Amino acid sequence: MGKGLDQDVLDMVLSSMRDFARDHLAEGVLLEFDARNEMPMDLVRAMCAGELGIQLLFVDEEFGGMGGGAFDVYRVCEEMARVDLGVATGVLATFLGSDPIAVGGTPEQKRRWMSRIATEGLLMAYGATEPEAGSDLAALRTFATPVMEDGAVSGYRITGAKQWISNGGVADLFSILANTPGGPAWFVLDAGTPGLTAGKHEDKHGIRASNTAALSLQDCYVEADRLVGGVEGQGLLQAQAVFGYTRLMVAAFGLGAGWDALERAVRYSTVRSVSGGPLSEKQGFTHKLIVPHAARLEAARAYIEEIAARLDEREGTLNTEGAIAKYLATEAGNLAADAAIQAHGGYGYTREYMVEKIKRDVRITTIYEGTSEIMEMTIARDRWQSHLKTRGEHYRDQGRALERLDAAHPDSGAAVAGLAHQALAEVLERCRQQRLTRSQHVLLRLGELIAYTECAASLARRAIAAAEGRMHPKASRRLSADALAAMSRIFGREAALLVAENGMRWVCGAADVADTAGLMSELRLPAIHAAQAGLVADMDLAADEIYGRTTRPVGVPANAGAREHP
Ligand SMILES: Cc1cc2nc3c(=O)[nH]c(=O)nc-3n(C[C@H](O)[C@H](O)[C@H](O)COP(=O)(O)OP(=O)(O)OC[C@H]3O[C@@H](n4cnc5c(N)ncnc54)[C@H](O)[C@@H]3O)c2cc1C
């Protein structure tokens, strides 16, 4: 990962992408590619080399790239997803494919391939998944047999099958995960390597403008210098080393696609008149189909931005945090796109309207780069350890920190986020006492509660930072500080209620709880119910902001808000 772009360079990249999309990827064009189940190869090539050169973002400066950091990548991925998730996936695949090299390659391997990606715009594919090994990559069966010459390994013969590989039928270069005698390892294969063949372009539910194909490897010979890092057995570690980063990218996809769908619903509702007025004036419409989705997406954004900044600070791999970001953003994006169809009524159910395509496209984000259930498991297992190691104080401490934050910033949503943390600590403690995490379902449901809780805290912090004018310099400034605070209060209430009520549900559902009233009070359910006061007024406020019905506070850019991307 690079050290990051200057802000004006990032702005230029984002604006070039918007120009490129306006000139080449108009709605009609995208709908056509979707209908024909066809990847716009020329356009993806133009994005990954020629006209746009987006691949430079992912390549370090020493190999001729721009050395973008995690924050840059998040902003660009969100923007790409607003255009088309299929096209964005074609670009993502090159990034994923080059990851093992960027992370684990020898200096010579990095020079050899990263500089070709930068200068020639090579398209890559990332070949990890197999017919029998998806979530459980350790079950992989593709095997690389060493070929010996004069007592040393001169090359490998690779045999096996890969499934659901993005760019599988069109890539110039492939990263292939295979078992070796020393354990799983990545190999770099050129297109055209004898024995390497791609299956048909899959007929998918969504992202139909991206090529997805199975790969067959029959005795494919590669020289030993194509073993990434030159040492067997490093493959899974190399894959895991970038999960924080790659999951952040898919999180940004969920965010971009979700907001795009929602903004379409917002625009539609201002011109669609029913029962004597536009839909945008109907509270029953906005407060169900727009506002809660906007709040969830902004909670995900707050978390994404915190993690991106921490990745850029080299704080570690942040795999669990990447999982939280991906989980919340992609689930929120999927729900928002579904609501956008509903918001369009019958029109939304037809292929002429982009929301129908976005809904099919965004669905993939809860599946690839780790399914939502695998994210729940990752999150729950890691934070469970934090709970145990701190003897239950992990979320209590954070809850107390939020209470202090609330004292200084009473309208930021920190108070109710604090309640969510305290309730979560109690749920986890009950699970420990009664050994409830032996139930896999309970464990995974904890993953959901944890993600909501942590994102509520992030949004409260972001609302405060916005109010104090100290957001990250590259942060998205689509909403005013007041709107962010309202969304923080809305989302915080949702998170706290989810934790307390679902906490009750799963604790009582898995254990024998004699004193349910006592548990309710330990989870602070009465306080969480009381904290719902003011929810509808906050939703009114958020709706007014989304629809540009507010007088903008001083210092907020005139183009902020939902109409930023017409
Ligand atoms: C369009 C598309 C593009 C893709 N691109 C790529 C790519 O470029 N490169 C690549 O390597 N892969 C790619 N994938 C593969 C993708 O990452 C996998 O499909 C995904 O990780 C899930 O694996 P699976 O399909 O084998 O499902 P499975 O692992 O079989 O999962 C099936 C279901 O079971 C659940 N599940 C799995 N394990 C558990 C468990 N232990 N406990 C409880 N529930 C569980 C899952 O959440 C899911 O709901 C792509 C997939 C698609 C559809």
Short description:
With 566 residues, the protein is of the alpha+beta class. The protein has helices at 7-24, 27-36, 41-48, 70-83, 85-104, 107-120, 235-240, 243-271, 283-289, 291-312, 319-343, 354-362, 372-389, 393-408, 414-433, 440-467, 481-510, 516-522, 525-530, 535-546, and strands at residues 124-127, 143-149, 152-166, 173-180, 183-190, 196-198, 212-223, 273-274, 277-278. The strands form 3 sheets. Strands 2-3-7-6 form a 4-stranded antiparallel sheet, with helices on one face. The protein has a 3-stranded mixed sheet with strand order 1-4-5.
Question: Describe it for me?
Answer:
57% of the residues are buried. This protein has a four-stranded antiparallel beta sheet, with helices on one face. Strand 2 and strand 3 form a beta hairpin. It contains 20 helices and nine strands. Helix 11 runs antiparallel to helix 12. It is of the alpha+beta class and 566 residues long. 56% of the residues lie in helices and 11% in strands. The protein is globular. It binds flavin-adenine dinucleotide (FAD). The site of flavin-adenine dinucleotide has 20 residues, from strand 1, strand 3 and helix 13. Flavin-adenine dinucleotide (FAD) binds next to strand 1, strand 3 and helix 13.
